[in-house]
Amino acid sequence: MRNLTISLSIFLCLITSAYAQISQGGEPLFSKENFSKSTEISTVELPKVDVVKLLKEDGEEASKDVPLRFAYAHDVNLNPKNSGKWFTNENGDKFWLLELESKGAKSLNLTFSNFYLPEGSKLFIYNEDKTDVKGAFTALNNKESRKLGTAPIMGDKIIIEYYQPSLVNENPSLQIAKVAHDYRGIYGLAKAFGDSGSCNNNVNCAEGNPWKDQIRSVALITLANGSRFCTGALINNTANDGTPYFLTANHCTGSDTSNWVFVFNYQSAGCNNTDGSLNQSVSGSQLLKKGAATDYSLLRLSTAPPSSYKVYYSGWDATGANPTKTTGIHHPSGDVKKISFDNDAPSIGTFNGNTVDTHWEVNDWDDGTTEPGSSGSPLFDQNKRIVGQLHGGGAACGNNLSDLYGRFDLSFPNLQQWLAPGSGLKKIDGYDPDGGGGNPPTCTDVTLTLKFDDYPEETSWTVKDSKGVVVKSGGTYPNQADGSTLAIDLCLESGCYDLTINDTYGDGMCCSYGSGSYALTDASGTLASGASFASSETKNFCVGTTRVVATTTKGTVNAIALNNLNLYPNPTTNILNIGYKIKEGSSISISILDIAGRVIKTKSFNHDIKSGKLQLDVNRLPRGSYFLKITENNNSVVKKFVISE
To answer: Which listed residue, of 7, 67, 359, 611, carries a Cα 20 to 30 Å from 495's Cα?
Structure first.
């Protein structure tokens, strides 16, 4: 390994979306083959969880006015100084690894009470066979609160991997305070996916089509210690500026929401019963206002969901006009997103004898229902505007009981300073950050067909975009019949992707135990297919557009070791320095992209052959945020930089 500078040309690559702010994509970097000494990872085994006792307690408190518990939160005190193990490779790059095990857990999630990553470092969290990877977390995830919660990672054993390149001298702060043991099975590992009642409607069924925009606003929430669920929704303001205001229920909210995790687009890819992905999440929020009478809480997320999530900010009506019919969108029992309809006008009601006439009462759902876990979910009127959020009620599949939603019009005087400052408006429509008046994003329909072998419970899959971010995923399938076939409808934006099929036993889908196979198709034919492999197989495919192959002017050159990339100063005013290390034998390309992910043209750049750095002149670009993307063969790294005045 040596430092070197090379002449580069800027090539325009087709990119369709911006980069996620909660997770930057990519793969874990640690490999035992890189180290000659023993690389046994230190394991912390957590105390046994009494599931029978927890389920009994859950049965005693089961109602919608108590957030649904799905996990037991272990209190821990773990950090790089008192646990785990450090490794240093021959290049001077450092790794800290810690393995956590809570036997019998269906998934695990973490709460960091102190979280800070230096610029250039990365953190990954993944299960033992790397079928579920969260990260990379980077300096972009640092928040003023210095707290971070994570979405659940499937399995009862996870590995935390911190990577610090040799160019980085600053130390991280990683204090783990909670490890939540999922005993219900959010991923469907022990329960059947679809733990909610059978009368619930998947949002991607035909009845949900008129509500595509509003569906994109609703998120599943894991609360402060990572052990309970609620639902809520992004809500628009009169400036239509995408400020990430979020409405949920007061009874879901404690005093601290800085560790909450908001999971968007957790829903079946189609109408059929398949599980969704938990990979599109935002961590952390600020509590702005809450009230008990109408059971509301207004939050501001720590960061706006990135454009790749395709979220929507729902409109609202604070006039107090009685809706003629209502719709609820929610996550019952922590399940994938569902939609419910009542074709009658709600009545004005009172919750459990509290302040009178403060709620809308949906007397009997005509199609669908709500359940614990639906708490805080929005109630929409016939004009697709929010008029309340779920407080509680007795509705369930098979009964005619009612649900009560806190009235938004009565909450509004306390929310007006954020949602409608100085405007006098009492109702507004929703806001789509992608424009087009709330039209759903354009995409290409593809179908993944899985013909299972004799063990469907071993099969899972992911689709990752060109940045390594999981955009679709599914499995395993313990409730599918042996040898059966499942067709999964997906909709993907134009671009190139990697489809990975996993088999937990390591014998593929064919032909030791049955003749299974998979095929991904679109209107033009087969995009990817296979059957015989070991633990996993990855196929690259593109939809909607032709890939542009980027090369350097000199062909194959010494290429940047992508993990050692460093940008400085950042923010910058005119010159951006790119520091790196390189190795022999690869091709590279560089692109600068705007915040929407569109490739833009750079005006000029200079390079210093001796110092191992490249200088880009960005003086003529408007001030704002940008991304620098460098690709080495099929591997890419993306860094955010800011041009200031």
So the answer is: 7
Contact assessment for residue 15 and residue 466, using Cβ atoms and an 8 Å cutoff = yes
**SS3 assignment for 145-203:** CCCEECCCEECCEEEEEEEECCCCCCCCEEEEEEEEEECCCCCCCCCCCCCCCCCCEEC
What CATH class does 32-182 carry? mainly beta
Q: How does pLDDT run across 454-478, given as a tens digit for each residue?
A: 999 999 999 988 777 787 888 888 8
Per-residue pLDDT of 299-334, as tens digits, reads: 999 889 988 899 999 999 999 999 999 999 999 888
Catalytic residues: 251, 295, 375
Q: N- to C-terminal Cα distance for the chain? A: 37
pTM above 0.85, yes or no: no
CATH of 444-543, one of 2.60.60, 3.90.1200, 3.30.1490, 3.40.50: 2.60.60
Contacts 24+ apart (CB under 8 A), 381-384: 381/317, 381/323, 381/324, 381/325, 381/326, 382/323, 382/324, 382/325, 382/326, 383/315, 383/317, 384/211, 384/213, 384/214, 384/314, 384/315, 384/327, 384/429, 384/430
- CB-count burial class (<10 Å; 0-12, 13-18, 19+) for 165: buried
> What are the start-end ranges of the E strands in 223-260?
228-234, 245-248
Reported CATH class of domain 201-428: mainly beta
